[in-house]
Design goal:
The protein has five helices and no strands. By secondary structure, it is mainly alpha-helical. It is elongated.
């Protein structure tokens, strides 16, 4: 039987993934509505690229999380695929931080610094966790051979 937290987490990942696709696809319109006529009018193309690249990378992170969650539901989470997913999520997080560094060059705000810091920490955490999972996979494989 699945716990409530497991069902909630699966629902949230699916919700974030599909709404993320919708938000990313509607970026040209929403960036135009919210930013074009305001202070950022001549930054429209730059903002559109920034949000689109960030959105696609964020969707890739959520995609990897969804793949990992399937192994959790199958009660087999210490597998090589999760190691690869964690490495990819780390790379995607670092790329989001780099994209936001570009944004700071256009227009610096404290929130941009927070976004960069969060994604650098997420990238580091994912890379380290991938190494932990890699060791766990090796131990599991050795244990399976013993039995």
């Amino acid at each position: 039987m699945k716990s409530r937290i497991t069902v909630f987490t699966k629902w949230m990942l699916d919700f974030m993934f599909y709404t993320g696709i919708l938000v990313t696809l509607t970026l040209p319109l929403t960036v135009y509505i919210f930013f074009y006529e305001k202070v950022y009018g001549w930054y429209y193309t730059c903002l559109l690229l920034l949000f689109a690249v960030s959105g696609v990378l964020a969707l890739l992170v959520i995609w990897e999380l969804r793949k990992m969650f399937r192994t959790v539901l199958a009660d087999d989470c210490f597998v090589e695929e999760n190691v690869v997913s964690l490495r990819r999520m780390g790379t995607y997080s670092f790329l989001i931080a780099v994209v936001w560094c570009w944004r700071v060059c256009l227009y610096a705000t404290p929130a941009s610094g927070v976004v960069i810091l969060v994604f650098v920490i997420a990238g580091l955490f994912s890379k380290v966790l991938s190494q932990v999972f890699d060791r766990a996979v090796i131990y599991k494989r050795e244990n399976d051979l013993t039995i």
